[in-house]
Amino acid sequence: MAAVDIEHGGHGGHDDAHGDPTAPYYKAKTGWKSWAYTLDHKRIAWLYLTAVALAFLAGGIFALLLRLELFSRGKTIVDAETYNRFFTLHGAIMVFLFIIPSVPGSFGNFFLPIMIGAKDVAFPRLNMLSFYVYVLGAIFALTSIVVGAVDTGWTFYTPYSVQTSTAVISMTFGVFVLGFSSILTGLNFLVTIHTMRAPGMTWGRLPLFVWGMYATAIMQVLATPVLAITLLLLIFERFFGAGIFDPKLGGDPVLFQHFFWFYSHPAVYIMIVPGMAIVSELISTFTRRQIFGKFAIAMSSVGLAILGFLVWGHHMFTAGMSEFSTMLFAALTMLVAIPSGVKVLNWTATMYKGEIRLVTPMLYSMGFIFLFSIGGLTGLFCGTLSVDIHIHDTYFVVAHFHYVMMGGTVMGFLGGLFYWWPKMTGKLYEEGLAKVSFALVFVGFNVTFLSQFIMGSRGMPRRYYDYLPQFEPLHKASTIGSWILASGLFLTAYILLKALISGKKAPPNPWGSAALEWQTATPVPLSNFAETPIVTRDPYDYHLASPEELYDGFPEDREKAAAKPKKAEEKAEKKAEKHEDKDDDE
Amino acid sequence: MSLEPTFQLPEQMSTSAANIDDLYYFIYWLSVVLFVGIIGAMIWFAWTYRARAGHKASPTPHNMVLEVAWTLAPLPILALLFHWGFQGYMDLSVAPANAEEIRVRAFQWGWDFEYKNGESDSSLHIPVGRPIKLVMSSNDVLHAFFVPGLRTKRDLVPGMYSSVWFQATKEGETDLFCAEYCGGKSKDQNGNELDPSQFKGHWAMLSKVHIESNDKYEAYLEGLGGNKPPEERGKALYEKKQCIGCHTVDGNKGVAPTWKGLWGRDETMADGTKVKVDENYIRESILEPNAKIVQGYASPSVMPTYKGTLKDKDIDAIIAYMKTLKE
Description:
Chain A is mainly α. Chain A has helices at residues 32-36, 41-69, 80-115, 124-146, 160-163, 168-195, 208-240, 253-287, 294-307, 323-335, 337-351, 360-383, 385-391, 395-425, 431-457, 472-502, 558-563, 572-577, and strands spanning 427-428, 504-505.
């Protein structure tokens, strides 16, 4: 795919600041400043990945603490006010500091330019700014913990959020700032995708990960300003008593919900579409064939982005909207099933007559399909009006959105980590242990949240510090599930860090993928490609890819492998074993 | 469908419940079929087409018919779900003209149900087999009226009225929850943790719906308040209106001043002034809790206003009760 050169070398405008364009990106320059001031999209991706991983850890610790509190009735570990802060911080950190920036910030930054054959994003300085804006927002948000935390729930519903004595302003201002980071990343990606595709990278050949990032960026740019306005109004309300949302001053608390969900529903798709985008990449690579209905999958991401703007009212079916609005939102909500279904069915169809390698990233994509199907189908209950009235604001809804957000996006994110780790770090992880970690995550997740569906449909409301005796066994099961899930996640962190520190050296294309990001060297050179690639086929066209492009070993072994074709099919790890000595050079 | 609780759903106690449960189980079985189909195919493909010697992926074909088919096939099912769900929703929304109204006021953290005779209680009593319409409002923040057994839920929004209606189908007792987060309190004004039994909040807005025969219901209304002497009425209001949550009557210091010996005492306010506890002071404190704050207690006060909740007659009764609580 990347055979011909027209522009030689990789001397972009900012290369001088980074050093030799052909050197591995993390060696081109050294010292802490080379990271702190970096304009390289790959290093910025690492900064983001580190930051979102820490946010995930923090949000996860709050999740474990609140599950532990709910293990038994009455007071278990903390008092009620602390519990209210825990679930608020869990939600706010997971949504605003982890999920929304997770995939675009890390894999989006690292691979989007490589996948379209570009040297960097369109605006590298803006890219760095977006990361530092994220850090600034995170500091504001986390400061709130020190100055009394927030007990409003991550939704900041008025009038409670106007009346509570906790640090609402610090948290909402942090989220306001984080929004700018999100907008900057989105803008950068849109311009990059439009203007920086390598010759031959037509819209039709655009990888599905890039399509997903494109749809996400549209939503980030269009929806986030509404959140910014809403949060500013809330801050005004608290500071000056503006009277927009507080009924005591003539305001309307339901207006806040409209404003909030006008952003936060598209935000749900800002969270899930990137997860779907990763899964499309993984399924193509591990079935070794083109994605079935690739165009339909690309368009379904765009379809979700558009529909996402039209269904915010389904968060408010019990809030007191008119019957007419309720009817409209319910009808539009049903349509969300179409693009979601198209994706799941097309992925499954891609596996038919494929050549399926059941390695950890593929297990995560299958885990995604399994869990997202449950998340999607339970969405039918929530979208059907009369049933929703019963399950609204219960644990059923909690389980539903965790199946979508965690069962979907986080599974995609973990799959992406295992998939791209060899390209990002140049190291291989330990496959056997990784499968164990997947099993723990998958089983733990289901134990935690399946029990919550049943609690919810039996009438257990959400955000409860204490509960009636009939719910105790299911709460216990859910808490035990959270421990299994956590052990799987800690094991994942161990496996990946161990690979980073002492893993075997990875060949450039350990999975034998036909996609463009695997065609460049590992570790990735600063300029991404030695020569600007000329794209002559779709990234998933395995039958058009040459044997060298699909070769999963070290380039220097190719001749040997060509002599014995069967060996070429063996797993990459075995090849890597022979090259253990090369690690010593690192 | 039986009225008894199933594994997934609680007992059916209203006329709307059967339809909602039928729809719930329709979606459930539809989901089970789709899920088993998709995941079964996925697992089957993963095994049948697993990578192994001698097996190669065949190039992905285009199949427009199949793609269009499964893009459009869900539409009729979705239309059916929407229609069925919307019908059920309208049934929950539009009360029959002859429904008996009960006023509901929610506050942090409790319920106040006021019946047609003007008397009120903290739990809901309804007659079986008669349509009941609740006209609801909130004194402070958002709350939601949720009774799983009746399959109904509706937010109570400060500054506006909302309503639900239902017709109970069997006598009995069922749980009533608040389903919209409304905060919580587990520390006193000095930041010291209270005893867990004193914690108040969203999860503790638990109450009961008592579904009774017509005769029993009318007798209940008769017995509410009625012609009791004012101090007894006051004692009942003290318990029903949640005064008991913060004010003790045994002299112990709670979240708020004890009522024991309160009457006639000179209280020192936060600004140092002294106020004699008399009828006007009590009345003002009930209607405008923030007008005067006793020294040593949280400012602004955590007490909700009872303006609109307690009538003059009720305030008189509470004063009469306080007078009995001598040191």
